[in-house]
User: Which sequence fits this backbone?
């Protein structure tokens, strides 16, 4: 039995997308691929409101996240940490041999513009990493305010993970001035996993030129050279790129404003239900994520039993990430989901909790 996915990634993939993935194979050095690649990167640029380079990486998000620190950290990196994925990114940064500090706030709290300002004002850093939407805790940090502060520090290359936020709300990269934005496609894009996207400003590419030991697979300069021919350095996941092409067409057919509004409506519905049911929120106000809700288990429900019960009914449910297991549960509201899908799962949960 297929379990309908309500976990915060991978997200349920529509049959239309699965069909797009079944397109006959082409060679990545054939003109057909260059046309597909250019079409997809042009559409991504439109979505992200940027003319910066957009690269397609055949990897999960962490591949491109590791690549970003390998290419862009010269002197020292400030890794802002407020959850499991940002903590892990710090570990990845140091394991690449980079000098880095973890600038930590408690899980559930956002990274604020003030914290970024104070940290960068020390003059110690030439790069920083930030996770816009910490999927482990359901916290969305204030990216617009942070981006404003980053403009004070032109020597600092900014690397931002929008893994679980890109396409659910407006993230206009050029206006924000983000040097490198990274995301995977199995979250708000509702595609099967295996493709990551990253961007690079000219400033980022100039930094990469000065950084040794960039390796090969994620070398930004290899990507930039291949991009001149609308291509990738090594064989890409062509089926997923077909899927991305189809999904971008669907995104523009829905309309960006309508898509952003749908995500707001889903978040509002779920937050309302969480309160009505007597649960709380793990994320501090007003930093609750738009794409998933991390609820605190204030009713002391046996979440493992609830997960099992939902599984038997054909639903995949998340009973908390890592150290938050049992204390919180997370429900995704992103991708192709509708409020009606959320009503379906909340009705099931209510029945099981009776
Ligand atoms: C915010 C965030 N960053 C990074 C990752 C890691 O992505 P991947 O497993 O695709 O490498 C995830 C996965 O859930 C995530 O939610």
Assistant:
């Amino acid at each position: 039995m297929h379990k309908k996915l309500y976990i915060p990634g991978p997200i349920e993939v529509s049959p239309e997308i699965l069909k797009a993935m079944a397109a006959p194979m082409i060679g990545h050095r054939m003109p057909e691929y260059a046309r597909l690649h250019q079409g997809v990167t042009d559409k991504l640029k439109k979505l992200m409101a940027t003319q910066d380079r957009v690269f397609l990486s055949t990897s999960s998000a962490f591949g491109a996240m590791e690549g970003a620190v390998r290419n862009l950290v010269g002197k020292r990196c400030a890794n802002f940490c407020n959850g499991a994925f940002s903590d892990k990114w710090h570990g990845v940064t140091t394991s690449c041999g980079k000098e880095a500090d973890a600038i930590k706030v408690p899980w559930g709290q956002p990274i604020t513009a003030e914290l970024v300002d104070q940290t960068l004002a020390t003059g110690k850093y030439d790069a920083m990493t930030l996770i816009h939407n910490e999927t482990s805790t359901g916290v969305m940090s204030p990216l617009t305010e942070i981006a404003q502060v980053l403009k004070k520090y032109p020597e600092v290359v900014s690397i931002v993970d929008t893994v679980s936020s890109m396409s659910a709300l407006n993230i206009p990269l050029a206006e924000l001035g983000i040097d490198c934005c990274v995301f995977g496609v199995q979250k708000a894009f509702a595609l099967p996993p295996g493709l990551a996207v990253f961007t690079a400003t000219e400033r980022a590419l100039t930094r990469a030129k000065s950084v040794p030991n960039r390796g090969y697979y994620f070398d930004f300069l290899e990507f930039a050279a291949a991009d001149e021919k609308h291509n990738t350095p090594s064989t890409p996941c062509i089926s997923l790129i077909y899927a991305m092409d189809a999904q971008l067409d669907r995104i523009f057919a829905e309309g960006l404003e309508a898509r952003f509004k749908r995500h707001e409506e889903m978040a509002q519905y779920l937050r309302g239900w969480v309160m009505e049911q007597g649960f709380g929120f793990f994320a501090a106000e007003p930093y609750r994520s738009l794409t998933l809700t991390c609820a605190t288990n204030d009713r002391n429900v046996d979440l493992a039993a609830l997960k099992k019960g939902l599984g038997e009914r054909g639903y995949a449910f998340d009973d908390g990430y890592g150290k938050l297991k049992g204390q919180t549960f997370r429900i995704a509201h992103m991708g192709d989901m509708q409020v009606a899908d959320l009503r379906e799962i909340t009705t099931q949960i209510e029945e099981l909790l009776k």
